[in-house]
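Our preliminary data section would be incomplete without showing what the modeling component actually yields. Below, a chain of 183 amino acids is followed by its predicted structure, encoded as tokens that our downstream tools consume directly.
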Amino acid sequence: MKLFSWLQDLSPTNSEDNHSESPLSPVLKARLEELEKLKVRDLMIARALVVALDADVQLRRVRRLKTSRAAYFPVYKGDLDHILGWISRQKVLELLQNPNEDVQLADYVRPIGFVDQDASVADLADVFLKSASPFLVVRSSHGSTVGIIFLSNFIELIFGFDLGPGAPPSAEAAIPLLRSYEL
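Predicted structure:
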């Protein structure tokens, strides 16, 4: 299933009245075409910039993450080509409160999704839905990790509003309310 494929079903067919206006605005049509052309590698955060946690490092050594702005981290074993899953910053902070020194990050990782660097951005919606992960690991054709792409960045790209720090507290604040939808 392609991103917004249901919108394309709304396009008028040849058998319909050609005088009626298309339900898709020209801006939306152009945006959908643009997304089909963009590749994941164009939007990803490069491997060199990925902040990740090593599953073999003792938890007390990751205390510096208290000041990190990232909400989710990949957890790897050995190197970034062997990503086990992800963990939230909140969970790491909870684990740091635990006096037990034997806490291992690997015990708390959640499954992660993977996407090919040459996939179109339009394909990302399905991959995010299937993985239920806050970000995807971007892989090369050889299987090595080349970067990550966050769900929040994908949503910003699609809908055009910022979900990062300093963003409006809700999506409603970013999208003006249309008069026809007021109750």
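Residues 10-19, 169-183 have pLDDT under 50 and may be disordered. The radius of gyration is 20 Å. Preliminary results of this kind motivate Aim 1 of the renewal.
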